Amino acid sequence: MSTNPTDCERKQDVSSADKSTYKAPAVRTPSVDRLMKIAHKFNLDVTTEELQQYQDRIALSCKAFDMVDSLPEPLLPVKYPRTPGYRPRPEENKLNAWYWRCDIKGADTGKLAGKTLAIKDNIPVAGVPMMNGSYVLEGYVPEFDATIVTSILDAGGHILGKSCAEDMSFTGTSFTSAKGAIRNPCKRDHSAGGSSSGSSALVASGDVDMAIGGDQGGSIRVPAAWCGVVGLKPTFGLVPYTGILSMEYTNDHVGPITKNVYDAALLLEVIAGYDNGLDPRQPVNLEVPEYTKLLATSLPGIRIGVVKEGFGLPTSEEDVDTLVKKAALQMTDLGATVEEISVPEHTIGAMVFNTYATTASIDTMIKECGAGSQYKGFYPSSAVNALHKGYKTRINDLSAVLKCGLLFSDYVKEEYGSYFYAKAQNIRIDITKTFDKILGDYDVLVMPTVPFKAPQLPNEGIAVSDVLAQTNEMLANCKVYNLTGHPALTINAGFSDGLPVGMMLIGRKFDESTLLKVAYSYESLRDKIK
After folding, report:
1. Helix (H) or strand (E) holding 34
2. DSSP helix/strand/coil, 55
3. What are the CA-CA distances from residue 394 to residues 123, 174, 401, 500 (Å)?
4. How far apart, in Å, are the Cα atoms of 375 and each of 56, 76, 249, 408?
5. Residue 300 has pLDDT above 60, yes or no
6. Is-contact 198 120, C-beta < 8 A?
7. Are 185 and 192 in contact (CB under 8 A)?
8. Which of 74, 430, 470, 518 has its CA 20 to 30 A from that of 91?
């Protein structure tokens, strides 16, 4: 006898469900009063009668949102088992560099087998809490792994936890994180840099072999330089940013922080590559060589340009400039040609970056809740929803740097629209062409990663003006290469007063092989001299 319901029974079931089930609308129809407020905001002259007619049409449009809300959405895969982990106690987190500890083992074999890693806390790891250094996101747990997390696990990597980031990853120092200051492992009362502060401190202290950082103005290179490790901002688009909270679509980079250049090359091999259109930042037919097989310990024929404009800045310290120039000149012993060059666009580019990044970053992080818009790719929708709710309830808990950025950004947008953003993006084209041309004559450019050594962490009660002064000065040399998208690597050039000094190498787009080769050769010479 058949147990399938008859057509009549089916109809009764549906009818019964229709009567007994209520679902609140995903988007409520706005009241006429609310529409009037919006009209006033945009200086629209409308009558109440007109608004009632607009309201009727809007009510119909809201049904589409109900439909979208009811549909399932594709997510990035979660391939390896894990448990939620825990927030470490102070005694096991002496640098305050861990946000969360977990234990996720990847494949049994692969290029990263035996390697332990920390993942910056703006990068989703399924089932593990993520707050991006900010109270506005605290409590959010992603349900997917970012593409690079899956790549790491597929290669046999062992993820030990999430590293602390600065508040919404928005500053270059290490004292704006909601969970407290991250300490420099070389001198614990000094800054570890930011915003990938935790990642760099954990690698430098030996807690992990490798880490992932994000870079929208120097956030990989600054902390790596101040902690004395290797940090690589790859070419824009080489490494997929899929699933990661965005700061500004044209500036977003993610890359390795490691103890040495070989490990940076190895990790880059694993995480670089085309992500099947899920990240439109990437060019199609992207090829990734085996960087580790292209490393060398000599540099015959390599031309290195020491960029004059990267030295002698108002914030520069003489010992930093001296150590970096000395390190650059040492590469002549490896067969390289080293000469000073002048690139005025380095200074101009820093100002252009300030013009467009200020407004656009706030738009993406706060107004568009960490995802941006108007591109075809994967959006971390659950994080967007969590951030939207967080901004509604905890916006006053943002750092002073973000509050200042929000005030200034909104002022510029209200008074001038997107004019300066658009013009700065156009100027970016010319500046990028200039660096492309210079890098046709030179294989690598050199300058200090940060013009000065890591400062002491401030005391509690620091004035807002002092916070603002301390959080962006370190980006002067780094941010230009977020503007242009060229790859840039920091490597330790020595120590002064017990603090590391970083030398930054800038290379041609998608020519990380040469950049890593130069860095590896210098590292081999440096360590031999020691």
Report:
1. helix 32-41
2. helix
3. 21, 21, 15, 37
4. 31, 17, 9, 26
5. yes
6. yes
7. yes
8. 470
CA distance 185 to 201: 6
Cα 396 to its chain centre, rounded Å, is 23
Tokens of 24: 């609140």
Strands (DSSP E) contained in 477-516 are 488-496, 499-506
Rounded to an integer, what distance in angstroms lies between the CA atom of residue 49 and that of residue 32? 9
Active-site residues, by number, are: 120, 195, 219
Residue with tokens 């902390």: 223
388 pLDDT exceeds 50?
yes
Alpha carbon of 307 to those of 326, 336, 520: distances in Å?
14, 16, 20
- Can you tell me the mean pLDDT for 278-300? 96
Query: Residue 497 carries which DSSP code?
Result: T
Q: pLDDT confidence of 471, banded at 50, 70, 90?
A: confident
CA distance to 34, 409, 410, 468, per residue, from 414 (Å): 21, 9, 6, 23
pTM (2 d.p.) = 0.93
Residue 148 contacts residue 199 (beta carbons within 8 Å): no
The burial class, CB within 10 Å (0-12 / 13-18 / 19+), for 394 is middle
Q: Which residue has the tokens 């929708």?
A: 381
pLDDT at 301 over 80: yes
Write down the pLDDT at residue 11: 41
Tokens matching residue 245: 């909270």
| Separation of CA 185 from chain center | 22
Q: Which residues make Cβ contacts (< 8 Å) with residue 351, sequence separation at least 6? A: none
DSSP code, position 386? H
Per-residue pLDDT tens for 80-95? Answer: 999 989 999 999 999 9
How far, in Å, are 25, 296, 356, 359 from residue 417 at the CA level? Answer: 33, 50, 12, 10
